[in-house]
Amino acid sequence: MQDLAGKHIVLGLTGGIACYKSAELCRLFVKAGATVQVVMTEAAEQFITPVTMQALSGRTVYTSQWDTREPNNMPHINLSREADAIVLAPCSADFIARLVQGRSDDLLSLMCLARPMDRIPLLIAPAMNREMWAHPATQRNLMQVAADGATVLGVGNGWQACGETGDGRMLEPAQLLEDVTAFFSPKLLAGQKVLVTAGPTFEALDPIRGITNHSSGKMGFAIARAAREAGADVTLVAGPVHLPTPRGVARVDVLSAQDMLEATTRAAQSASIFVATAAVADWRPATQSNQKIKKDGSGRTPVLNFTENPDILLAVAKSERARSKKLFCVGFAAESENLAEHAKAKRERKGIPLLVGNIGPLTFGQDDNALLLVDANGVRELPRAPKLTLARELMTEIAARLPDWRV
Ligand code: C5P
């Protein structure tokens, strides 16, 4: 997806082994539709060559403030004025300290200092050893650089090139792409707390087996990501799925419908928007065996009895918070035919302001989908598109409905 189409990013590399990841980051920015101008410090050139970055960005790399290619000999002015954002990845501890001090004795620091602060954002992806990261000097500098208007994208945790394990790794290129994309997104849901349920539930029969369904969780995860991009504080209650947690989203993993109900009602107490995409099992086995149910060779098969599961959406929609219009509830309906009719009936039955219909067999496990939005005013179609695109459109639709609904 061309999430960064039309954007011009100045990608600054400073001295750190994480420079090897900047090659991939550059490629991801370009693939997402951005033009990328790479600027490297002398120390960065010790880790990766400008040739690599030139080949990936398709532009010659700038490394010196004395670069005579610029007719006015002012690359620090020219490069920063063209940018939609300056992204420093990796940003070393030393470079952060230099930013704090307003040093400007090399092209990259000079360019950061010379950037018009009101219109050219500076995003930094720190990378360093865990002791350097934890040092009060670094933490103090990070607070100062943020106070001076930079956006600090955070660090990863794990094995470090020095052989130690801890905080301070540069975020992975895909994570940085997600963060930079989110940074550019309009903050339509700023101040909102969005709660999303996603995926299937798993209803245990015994310690080995259980009943579940084919829900992939992709739509719900895309919604959680889109809500965070739109500036919301997001909690994602996820059934058993193998999907990475969207950046900046608080995830609660659950198995059964009962667990999901508990986690959801707890989070719903402070949420302002609830989107129920989970394919909750309608029934669970009436009894759960503590031990594996064994076949005894007699040919007799076990008889299974079922109990109906709680309807999580219905329970939340009936809560005081939803009824007093502090919590906007959105349901999903997976149907196989007569989508509009079924979706309208389901919206009434659940007593919610917005219901999103889709045709189940056309969406399960797919990366794209088509949605039908049903509210009190009628029906609106969101044509087939990638799930993330639809999730973003849905966030826009929800944001547009909130003011009228709340009065
Ligand atoms: O009633 P039905 O399962 O068709 O409704 C679908 C909608 O209700 C979805 O939003 C789904 O997440 C939610 N739901 C729920 N708990 C259930 C069943 C459905 O939250 N037990």
UniProtKB/TrEMBL annotation:
Record HAMAP family: CoaBC (MF_02225)
InterPro entries (alphabetical): CoaB-like_sf, CoaBC, DNA/pantothenate-metab_flavo_C, Flavin_trans-like, Flavoprotein
UniProt-listed Enzyme Commission number(s): 4.1.1.36, 6.3.2.5
Cofactor(s), names only, from the UniProt record: Mg(2+); FMN
Protein name, as recorded: Coenzyme A biosynthesis bifunctional protein CoaBC
Reactions mediated catalytically: N-[(R)-4-phosphopantothenoyl]-L-cysteine + H(+) = (R)-4'-phosphopantetheine + CO2; (R)-4'-phosphopantothenate + L-cysteine + CTP = N-[(R)-4-phosphopantothenoyl]-L-cysteine + CMP + diphosphate + H(+)
Cofactor note text: Binds 1 FMN per subunit.
GO term, biological process aspect, one: pantothenate catabolic process
Involved pathway(s): Cofactor biosynthesis; coenzyme A biosynthesis; CoA from (R)-pantothenate: step 2/5; Cofactor biosynthesis; coenzyme A biosynthesis; CoA from (R)-pantothenate: step 3/5
Taxonomic superkingdom: Bacteria
Keywords: Decarboxylase, Flavoprotein, FMN, Ligase, Lyase, Magnesium, Metal-binding, Multifunctional enzyme
Residue intervals of the Flavoprotein domain: 7-180
Organism the protein comes from: Variovorax guangxiensis
Family membership noted in the UniProt record: In the C-terminal section; belongs to the PPC synthetase family. In the N-terminal section; belongs to the HFCD (homo-oligomeric flavin containing Cys decarboxylase) superfamily.
Residues covered by the DNA/pantothenate metabolism flavoprotein C-terminal domain: 189-400
Positions bound to CTP: D282, K292, P310, D311, I312, L313, F332, K346, K350
Role played: Catalyzes two steps in the biosynthesis of coenzyme A. In the first step cysteine is conjugated to 4'-phosphopantothenate to form 4-phosphopantothenoylcysteine, in the latter compound is decarboxylated to form 4'-phosphopantotheine.
